[in-house]
Amino acid sequence: MKALITELIWSEGIEELKNQGFDVDYDETLWTDRERLLEILPQYDAVIVRNQTIVDEELMEAGTRLKAVGRLGVGLDNIDVKRAKERGIPVVFARHANATSVAEYVLTAILSASRPLHLANSDVRNGQWNRKQYTGGELYQKTLGLIGLGEISHRVAKRANAFGMNIIGYDPFITEYDHVVSETGVDIKETLQELLVESDFISLHVPLTPSTQHLLSTPELKRMKPSSYVINTSRGGIIDEQALASALQNQQIAGAYLDVLEREPVLDSHPLLLCESVTITPHIAGLTEESQVRTSFLVAKEIGKVLKGERSLCTV
Ligand code: NAD
Q: Hey, what domains does the chain have and what are their CATH numbers?
């Protein structure tokens, strides 16, 4: 059995594949050379990607021996899952392996918005002692609005509870008896509009689909409190970036933390780079040392199961 890895993987994943008897070829930059990828793909039984390799009809057609696609993460928007299903190629993903890392990133963003220690520190280093300017605010009794109430939101809610935050949520696909609600006491709102109006912090945890594309655009941003922050660790495209840049420039909202953008890496000319109240990180919310060890090992292990014809709980 031969496996091809086209993007960054931790060594635990490669070792696990080898332990299972795979010949492994690994080139973390292969995703940038589509022509070469399509040329060599026919030799492999499995291809393992992260979020940059586009796994579409053309790629699956080229992979004449392909029996499984591995995704080192959870968002599947770079993979044509429907075509993979039609072709009988299981897609193995790192179910829940990086959810804690993303949840901790969200709490970091919320804490950083409330107590910007890094700004106070640079001020002190510039000879200042501005105690009033850095008074900050408490999280206690502030309202956190979670859009999408799946695995990551559940973990965010659990942690936000410890700070005494009021947690509200919007997700038309869950009921009051689902674990995020019954275990963490999230107050479900019937409409997105209610959540937008009431929240001090809004965090997005939905997949990118046609129904979530530009879920937050000008009308939604206008409803948010001028003192509120939005955090997007889900996918670029869920927030309308032009609309967000205008909302930040016009101080319709206080700030944004974006781990994901419609186009990654960000272009130098992007209007959001002119907004001081936005913090942009290079798609790292789920990328901690611990989560990557888990992700790499899990996908490798499950790819092995799939190729042996065994049942896997990490496939779509
Ligand atoms: P999940 O599938 O457990 O939860 C997603 C939730 O969104 C579900 O409960 C679903 O009902 C809800 N939803 C779908 N459409 C909706 C809509 N229109 N309005 C409101 N809710 C809707 O997924 P998860 O594990 O919580 O992950 C969420 C997203 O986070 C992933 O799709 C992925 O794109 C992203 N992610 C990013 C990183 C990163 O490093 N930045 C890491 C992991 C995951």
A: 2-97+289-307 (3.40.50.720), 99-280 (3.40.50.720)
Q: What is the C-alpha radius of gyration for the chain, rounded to an integer number of angstroms? A: 21
For ligand 1, what atom is nearest to the CA of residue 212? 18
How far is residue 247's CA from residue 241's CA, in Å, rounded to a whole number?
10
Question: What residues are in contact with ligand 1 under a 6 Å CB criterion?
Answer: 73-75, 98-99, 102, 147-153, 170-174, 205-207, 211-212, 233-235, 259-260, 283, 285-287
Q: Which residues contact 113 (CB under 8 A, 6 or more apart)?
A: 201, 229, 254, 255, 257
Instruction: Decide if 132 contacts 143 (C-beta within 8 A).
Output: no
Please choose from 178, 231, 234, 298 the residue to mutate so as to test ligand 1's pocket, defined by most ligand atoms within 8 A of CB: 234
304 CA from centroid of ligand 1 (Å): 26
Catalytic site residues? 235, 264, 283
C-alpha of residue 169 to centroid of ligand 1, in Å: 13
Alpha helices in 167-288 (DSSP H): 179-184, 192-198, 218-223, 241-249
Report which protein residue has its CA nearest ligand 1's atom 8: 150
Angstrom distance (rounded) from CA 152 to CA 194: 21
Ligand 1 center to 9 CA (angstroms): 22
To the nearest 10°, report the CA torsion of 166, 142, 149, 159: -80
pLDDT in tens, the chain (316 residues): 999 999 999 999 999 999 999 999 999 999 999 999 999 999 999 999 999 999 999 999 999 999 999 999 999 999 999 999 999 999 999 999 999 999 999 999 999 999 999 999 999 999 999 999 999 999 999 999 999 999 999 999 999 999 999 999 999 999 988 988 888 999 999 999 999 999 999 999 999 999 999 999 999 999 999 999 999 999 999 999 999 999 999 999 999 999 999 999 999 999 999 999 999 999 999 999 999 999 999 999 999 999 999 999 999 9
